[in-house]
Amino acid sequence: MRLVRSIGCARRAVSELQHPRVLVPTMGALHRGHVALLEKARKIARRRSGSVLVSIFINPAQFGPGEDFTRYPRTLASDLAICRAADVALVFAPSAQAMYDPHRSTGITETALSRGLCGASRPGHFPGVCTVVAKLFHILSPDAALFGEKDWQQLAIIRRMVADLDFPVEVLSAPTVREADGLAFSSRNAYLPTEERALAPGVYAALRKAAAEAPTPASAAKLARKLIGKIPGARIDYVEGVDAATLTPTQRVDRPARLAAAVYFGTTRLIDNIPFPTPKP
Ligand code: AMP
Fold first, then answer.
1. Based on the structure, what is the number of domains in the chain?
2. Quick one: average pLDDT of 89-95?
């Protein structure tokens, strides 16, 4: 496995890798959700003797003022061990200086799917995500890239960007991996003190109960809001029942939908989403 830190080295290293090259973009602090993406990437790459690439970059451009950029967990040594064990061929872990020219004045903004949900509460977030993912695609020239359904809105926006701007990259996804108690793995779970960690799975439980009991995505959101409101210490940012493709609130039951939530515990903001209707276990 090679570790490269600069754009030039990354381009040279990539040119020596077999196709298909499958990229898993991450911000590091790798957990079992990321490992599932690495395993899926390896299966896809291996089918045709290709290579898995991982980027580890805590992208300052996707954090707003006062958000958790400075305290985001940085665990490069253990991330590299995880990548090595997952048979990753190349890790690209640039510094912010290597990625961004101080005079940069160009970026990518998706203007429809980014409006609601996390886009409404984090205004610069998705422009930051789109711009860095576009840069990673240009630098690493992957044939395919894998994203988690945990960040459903991000996945939809990246698919849109790739289609709109003709990136020659196949966007693939993998389902959310959860702890035994239902909490979705997230690098931000490390922020939760014991008591909040014990309460956090209540969000997923509320989404599941609401999706099982309510007749439409919008009414499920209403019920989930009520249930999450009863979790001690939980502060709702949003709970919405949205069309899975357009991400707009919907009452329709004839099209795939998602029940999505962002909830604060203290200063920690957790997001989650499930399909509506939820498939029976
Ligand atoms: P991050 O490092 O948080 O930017 O995440 C990198 C990728 O891993 C994104 O595509 C996420 O959607 C995905 N991911 C994060 N958490 C999970 C999870 N619990 N299950 C599956 N994928 C995840």
1. 2
2. 98
